[in-house]
Amino acid sequence: MTGTVAVTGGNGRVGQGVLAHLNDEGYWTVNLSRGKRAEEQSDAYLTTDLLDAGDVYGSLAKSDADAVVHLGMLPTPDGTPGYRTYESNVMSSYHVLEATGTLGIDTVVLASSFSAMGGGFEPDGVTVDYLPVDEHHRLTPSNPYGLGKQTLEIAADGFARRVDDRPQTITSLRFPWVVDDTLARETFVENDRTLRGMRNSEHYHTQRNTLFTYVHLSDAVDLVRRSVEATFDGHERIWVSAPDTSAETPTREVIADVFPDAEVRSDFGKDEYSALVDTAKARTLFDWAPEWSWRQLA
Fold it and tell me: What is the Cα–Cα distance from 18 to 167, expressed in whole angstroms?
């Protein structure tokens, strides 16, 4: 498949990776972002306020896109009031879904997050009923960022129920932290990644609350491209993860130590460091499997 893909938030690190990969695969790309252009990957750039419905509609119409990848949301809640964080996730997604439906754009890929589950930026520990986590696991977010991600998924459900004026194919990708080689080396390789070592880190709570997940940019952009090319009818939520955890402690020991009350639904015997997130749905729908592990840098 070739055509035009509009990427919101293409100025960001992940957005630039998506633009570059789509270009390599033969797509014409249009970056829809606020402010000045901050990348050299896209074929065209349209300054767009993603919280303005008219701006979104106008830019998508001008881009003549066949698909939209919506990444243009706040990446963290650290620098904005809660209502701004929630608005960024929810209203920008609503505007994209509404405009694509009206314009007859069939495919939308939304950047959801691990935080939709109720992990990530939650002040309390993540609720884990069973492991590995899959798309049927309950969602328990309470902070504005996680609530916003859950809500954008609910909005996508609603648009998928429409008879007319809707995208045919909507994918919500629940991304963990996306790393490149440099970030992986600095965070994983150059630090003590045993449970004992991580507990001495200021980031332990966040790492625990995201089940020690991550994904490399190369695998993330490959899944985005496969989602752009999907033709299923409706809305699907997809967990995203590397094939392993970010811990140097074996997965069975991590579960016993950190998540002793969770029901274990796998023997985790295939790989000593198997991820705690099940990506089987991505494999079934998109023939995608994560390949990159931080351990290859060690």
Answer: 21
Residue 291 lies in a domain: yes
**Domain contains 106:** yes
Domain that holds residue 47: 4-124+133-179+214-242+276-297
- Would you say residue 249 lies in a domain? no
**What is the domain-level CATH number for residue 50?**
3.40.50.720
- φ, ψ for residue 173, nearest 5 deg: -95, 120
d(CA 282, CA 125): 27
- Contacts of range 233-236, beta carbons closer than 8 Å, 24 or more positions apart: 233/168, 233/169, 234/160, 234/169, 234/170, 235/153, 235/156, 235/157, 235/159, 235/160, 235/170, 235/171, 235/172, 236/170, 236/171, 236/172, 236/281, 236/285
- Is the Cβ–Cβ distance between 102 and 139 less than 8 Å? no
Is residue 265 situated within a structural domain?
A: no
Count of the separate structural domains present in the chain: 1
pTM of the model: 0.97
pLDDT at 104 over 80: yes
- Beta strand segments in 184-259, E: 215-216, 234-239
pLDDT digits (tens, 9 = 90+) for 173-206: 999 999 999 999 999 999 999 999 999 999 999 9
Instruction: Express each pLDDT in 67-92 by its tens digit.
Output: 999 999 999 998 999 999 999 999 99
Q: What percent of the chain has pLDDT over 70?
A: 100
Cα-to-chain-centroid distance, residue 256: 28
> Do the Cβ atoms of 105 and 126 come closer than 8 Å?
no
Rounded (to 5) percent helix, strand, coil in the chain = 40, 15, 45
